[in-house]
Prior knowledge:
The complex is a heterodimer.
Chain A: H1 5-30, E1 41-42, E2 58-61, E3 69-76, E4 79-81, E5 85-88, E6 92-99, E7 104-108, E8 114-117, E9 121-128, E10 133-138, E11 151-157
Parallel strand pairs in A: 3-6, 5-11
Antiparallel strand pairs in A: 1-9, 2-3, 3-4, 6-9, 7-8, 7-10, 10-11
Chain B: H1 12-43, H2 55-87, H3 92-117, H4 135-165, H5 173-204, H6 213-247, H7 254-267, H8 284-295, H9 298-318, H10 327-330, H11 336-359, H12 364-367, H13 371-401, H14 407-436, H15 452-488, H16 515-539
Amino acid sequence: MHIHKFEKIWLIFGITTLIVFLSVIGVSAFYLGNQPPSCLATINPEKVDTTAPFDKPGLKKVEGKEWDYELVFVASAFAYNPGQVEVPLGAKVKVIATTKDVIHGFQVAGTNINMMLEPGYISEFVTTFDKAGDYLIVCNEYCGVGHHMMSSKIEVVE
Amino acid sequence: MNTKSINPKVDRRDGKLAMAHFYVAFIALAIGGLAGLLQTLVRSGKFELPSWTGYYQILTIHGVVLGLVLTTFFIMGFQLSLVSKTSGTLTNKQRKTGWIGFWTMTIGTVMAAIMILTNQASVLYTFYAPLQAHALFYLGLTLVIVGSWIDGAAIIMAYSSWRKANPGKPSPLLTFMSLVNTLMWIVATIGVAATVLFQLLPWSLGLVERVDVLVSRTLFWYFGHPLVYFWLLPAYMAWYAIVPKIIGGKIFSDSLARMSFILFLLFSIPVGFHHQLMEPGIDPAWKFLQVILTFLVVIPSLMTAFSLFATFEMFGRSKGSTGLFGWVKKLPWGDARFAVPFIGMLAFIPAGAGGLVNASHQLNQVVHNTIWVTGHFHLTLATSVVLTFFGISYWLVPHLTGRVLTKAMNKLAIIQGIVWAIGMTFMSGAMHAAGLLGAPRRSSFSTYGGSEQAAEWIPYQVAQAVGGSILFLGIILMLYIFINLAFFAPKGEEEFPVGEVADQAEKTPMVFENWKLWLGITVLLILFAYTIPFIDMIENAPIGSKGYKFF
């Protein structure tokens, strides 16, 4: 099949750009470890309240791990527990969350902390809070009539 | 290309079948458009819905009616008329199949509509199990899908009888393209049919207690991404093979057009995980694999862009234009059949770039489920695709009804296109900006307890309402033009423009008609991208979820 010379140049340019772009994403994912939240852990969604660590939601200091704190959230229609939490500035935190009922979103608005919470699964994301201030957490996946009322707040304090 | 088989006119009986599809599509446009307007008004914070309805109910109507009903009906009507025009009048059996498909889809639509209107199905068109809608909602949407398969069967039958009558020859380009889109649609909808028939229906009927949420989402998105290509490919048909004729030029290359369609068939299905990048139960390595497959559609997209602009430039130069961009002036800007789809093509440039962001392994983390995504598909589907559909209607509707597009209607159609472009610039632009700041999609107006961050989003939401209102004006104009072309325009003959291939283009290789080969590769790619993660999901499944009715 004949392909016009200009089209060949255009496609070679396009495909090269594509390869560069995908390589950047790949290096970021597999070398720098910037993977999306996928921790592959399951839980019985009807027993969240009695299963550790979700029996005690909130911030906990931990020792001997790659992160300093674990921040545990339980989502249910239409609230997060805790509804508000303080995190020290510069802390490396593993955010751990799940849902007791339907699918919820968990997004710290304006950051790249963004996870789907699905019944039966635990979602995790490790991050560092290096800017002081108030951060709004919103449910960004439709969960029912009170969806837009569902929020929480992280206060990053010195 | 074989031109002998081209009908001078689409047979009136086939025209009626196509028009029946268009009536439903444009009623859907009216209802869905009104729902869209109400959403942007509510989200501005200055307007409240009456107590008998709710934001999420309206949102469900908007999504189902525009995303599924308008598109599926329009596309099937368009493809049936393309086949009838380029491969010859449908046989009685084929036409009857088309009518059965149409009525199945219509009955399904009405069933789903009743459930949504009585607030028993406010689960949006993406379903969101374990939110549980009434069984009739799922059943209705199943009938829409099954009806579209029956419509598709008519297209497949027409294609096969053409091939049988013309051994050794490549099929007419537009028939070929309709067939590819139909095959892709059938392969893709198997996913949504499986989740509805085996999971959601038995569960909503109470036959089983629990549903596996992750499996249901994975089956849905297996269908949910090719769905967007099912919308886009008919627009590409018009861009590749109809717009060249309208401007008076030639198709750049028949073979390249076919190759790009085949590539869309291969690469649009095994990519659903890029909608699930933020989900907990899928291994990131498999997500990355599907991200790579997603990006391969960049190649046929670049081919399309090249081919279109090559056609435009060849035409301009044949009219004696000089300089690098002199040909731009020679294009028929006063012809709505060209100008309106052209606005759609332009919108596809930022739309495609935004799509790259959404599908990226990490960039998605910033925009996932923010209103950025809504802004993105209001450029792709609601501008590129929809304006091209409008552009098609401007000649197809009068052609089928035996009327003409008058000068006055042509002018109004161009105004319609401009109104749409302005409205969408406001609405989609504001959505992209607010999304980057973190404003969520699919959410009613909220100040989130007086949060300062949420307060920053409100001016953008007001801009969305301004854009939404302008777009609604555009919808009223479009409906006025449609009704005119269907019932009131002067009688006459409107041309059905079918492009011819440029003289210097090479002969089309027959390998493109080898469906065992292409469907085989499609299935292999799907198995490669899905088998292991799917086994993973089932083996490591948590206990399923009971149904919830939070609406």
